[in-house]
UniProtKB/TrEMBL annotation, chains A, B:
GO terms for molecular function: carboxypeptidase activity. Pfam families: Peptidase_M32. Its EC number is 3.4.17.19. It comes from Cohnella boryungensis. PANTHER family: CARBOXYPEPTIDASE 1 (PTHR34217:SF1), METAL-DEPENDENT CARBOXYPEPTIDASE (PTHR34217). This is Metal-dependent carboxypeptidase.
């Protein structure tokens, strides 16, 4: 298990490098090397020896002899083993090489706005995933099998219900906002913002959040991400846009939230495969909690707007914290998910969710994706991409084969709202704390409640322990309604 | 063999990362992961299966059936196999983890000028190497065994002779220079030179040399290095000193020379273990050829000084190419090897060579290294380090266990001078070409003569094919005498 963990750490570093600046021409051979090492890791996790050890540990009475960590390790390992044993090793290797090359192809296709150039990769990746579903065995629907990879136990049935509830309250809210005469002023967000100053302010905020730069680093990449190589090397990236003051900043806080999770897993899990977030949904709850509940709050900007002004002298002198807060929370249907406001963001996710279900449950032809994409954006958000780079090609996920991942973002929003409801009772003066630049009490509370456990508890166990109930959509809806009622002065 | 090559590529990337900015706290676990993967690579190279394959291929008549590349691959692999089989796998792994940690320890010790803090690592590394020598079998002397690792076939006997010849001509030359009244003016080299401009000019020169930035990248590290991960990903680092105009620049050209070698190995070797330089001596011949013969030549600065002036406006306006050329070639005994002039540089190497021989052939106690080091610097160069950071701790090599490597640098100088003698006959107007900024004809000639072969030919085969004779010290001595006679206007 340690060897598997170590190989995954090294593979994580190779992927980080590929995304942050590996020379283009070297990618071909690098992908082959990644394939070789992934393949070896895969073999370790599916070896006869592993099977025998797992069988022996699952003999009656054996598991009871183990401590909590080892028991959970055996359980997780057995699950991986069962799943991986069904995939022929050559198929796995081919798939790793393919997705590794597809990421570069996606980057090029996005740059050149060339969806047809990316289709062959997408077709192959989808075909592989269809085959995987067949080998693993389809659950209620084929897409359910994919969902379970990222949020163990989650079904399309439950997700349809949760997303239905969200839609029922958020769409009317969006309409009331659209009809409100009290639009926030966003004029001060326009301009050119020095990249270097953006970088320095991002670092400042990460420090304030308690991100440990001796156990991580901040770089640039086309698509921001966080990666925990080991718990003392958790790297994040962001993307500085010269004409956008807040894009890199909120990206950094988002990835910083992921990183706080990974950096604060308890030490005794460090060398085990449990040393990572328990699910993508819980992971996104932490990134989106920091990005939105903290980073887009009034209290936060009461404290940090004066700091921000010193990084961009003369550019924001006239803006008050109230105006800034309202400006960064403007609700506006838009094309790019990672630039979306907190409310319409969930509609972006639902579009991807619906499309993914169509791909796997209804055999949608990938060549038709741009058309379907554009129609759904028009229907749900009233906007149409001018080209595929700002449409179907905007996200890297499908290039990496991450079908079933997108719902995690909205799950994260729901988990986060539900947890924050508890946090506010545990830290009654939380807003005053944030307003005084004391972000660490929240970080400590989250460490105690969530981070330290890594994968030691399942997502459902975590949310139920923290909030004494299963995941609900109502907390997120309440939170958004309250927030926007005030900003847009709704009745 | 492909798998071994691929794992080495990935390990190379991990080392690159460790040296260019991996977070400090993650190094411990990373070193363990490196140990695990190195160990696996080591096992592949020493497996029973490998042994059987090599035996089968060495049956009478079998090798003759193979092509040139495969024959050479078998030969090199058999040599590695024989050597590695003698090292117990656990011992190898322990050593890899040790040297990986020792590099960080060295960095810290150098920063804090704390040699005693580094001694425990050094003692262990030396003990390991003594054990390796015992297992491999000592040649004429124990140190001969280490030499052979970096320059196959080289002996202390031959090196004593070559270094003796060098000393016999270079020490008197250094004395004549010291007594010359015609000292170059170096005042224009003092000042503060913007780091960013240094970086940009370094990149400009690398482009001029034909370094392919789509198959490589330039970063910063405490100790400059080049690493060929694969032939399309050859990375170099340099170190910008704000008060030194030329340190980073010549470092970049030096590492750029290494990189040209690796980037221009013929395509058909790309996926084999022959896709690297044939020896450290030949590798250093290419870095030092570009750094010195090209980068410190009059013709080069005739062309590039005007460029340099545009990167540092107002700072070098008064300097002529002739003055610049003389200034950067000032001969001055100094403490730091990588800052030394072309002449005294060889004396630095001889000091390390003598100390390494003492460590392995005479059991010198590592704790006495600073004393021995300082005495030898006083004797050979007339200078004494003020502290160990600028003395015995200045180089990373010993932290990585690279005993026997240093001689490569002077061998490189000798190889380079001997090759340049041929190059000047092949390209009679070479100086005019360089003076016109046409560096590519030289690069093409070196590609044809040296680079393309990778490890397909042995060092002795290369120098004898190129120059029709074995390695001589006289070409380097002639070159240096001619160069300094003119600069110092010696009789």
């Amino acid at each position: 298990m340690t060897q598997i963990k170590q190989y995954e750490e090294i593979l994580g570093l190779v992927y980080w490098d590929m995304r942050t600046g590996a020379p283009r021409k070297g990618i071909g051979l690098r992908s082959e090397a990644v394939g070789a090492l992934s393949s070896e890791t895969f073999k370790l996790s599916t070896s006869e020896e592993m099977g025998e050890l797992l069988r022996a540990l699952n003999e009656p009475g054996e598991l009871a002899k183990l401590g909590e960590i080892d028991r959970r390790l055996v359980e997780e390992t057995a699950k991986e083993y069962e799943r991986n044993r069904k995939i022929p090793p050559d198929m796995h290797r081919e798939y790793v090489v393919l997705t590794s090359q597809a990421e570069s192809a996606w980057e090029e296709a996005k740059e050149k706005n060339d969806f047809p150039g990316f289709v062959p990769y997408l077709e192959k990746i989808i075909a592989f995933n269809r085959k995987f579903i067949e080998l693993w065995g389809a659950k209620a629907t084929p897409y359910d099998t994919l969902l379970d990879m990222y949020e163990p136990g989650l079904t399309t049935e439950e997700l349809d219900r949760l997303f239905g509830e969200l839609r029922a309250r958020l769409v009317p809210l969006a309409e009331r906002i659209a009809n409100s005469p009290n639009k926030p002023d966003t004029s001060f967000l326009a301009g050119t913002f020095d990249k270097d100053a953006q970088n320095k302010f991002s670092k400042h905020i990460l420090n304030e959040m308690g991100y440990d730069f001796e156990a991580g680093r901040l770089d640039e990449s086309a698509h921001p991400f966080a990666t925990g190589l080991n718990k003392n090397d958790v790297r994040i990236t962001t993307n500085y846009l010269p004409d956008d003051l807040t894009f890199a900043l909120f990206g950094t806080i988002h990835e910083g939230g992921h990183a706080l999770y990974e950096q604060n897993i308890r030490e005794e899990l460090a060398e085990t495969t449990l040393c990572t977030g328990t699910s993508m949904g819980i992971h996104e709850s932490q990134s989106r909690l920091w990005e939105n509940t903290v980073g887009r709050s009034k209290a936060f900007w009461d404290r940090y707007l004066p700091d921000l002004k010193t990084y961009f002298p003369g550019q924001l002198d006239e803006v008050s914290a109230e105006e800034f807060y309202r400006g960064i929370n403007v609700v506006e249907p838009s094309l790019i998910r990672i630039k979306a406001d907190e409310l319409t963001y969930n509609l972006h996710i639902m579009i991807r969710y619906e499309i993914e279900k169509m791909l796997f449950n209804e055999q949608l032809d990938p060549r038709d994706l741009p058309e379907v994409w554009n129609r759904k954006y028009e229907e749900a958000l009233g906007v149409t991409p001018a080209n595929d780079a700002e449409g179907v090609l905007q996200d890297v996920h499908w290039a990496g084969g991450a079908f079933g991942y997108f719902p995690s973002y909205s799950l994260g929003n729901m988990y986060a709202a539900q947890m924050m409801d508890v946090a506010r009772r545990a830290i009654p003066d939380l807003d005053e704390q944030i307003g005084a630049g004391r972000l660490l009490p929240l970080k400590e509370w989250l460490t105690e409640q969530v981070y330290q456990y890594g994968k030691l508890q399942r997502p459902s166990e975590i949310i139920e322990r923290v909030s004494e109930q299963p995941l609900q959509s109502s907390y997120l809806c309440d939170y958004l309604e309250n927030k926007y009622r005030e900003i847009y002065r709704l009745e």
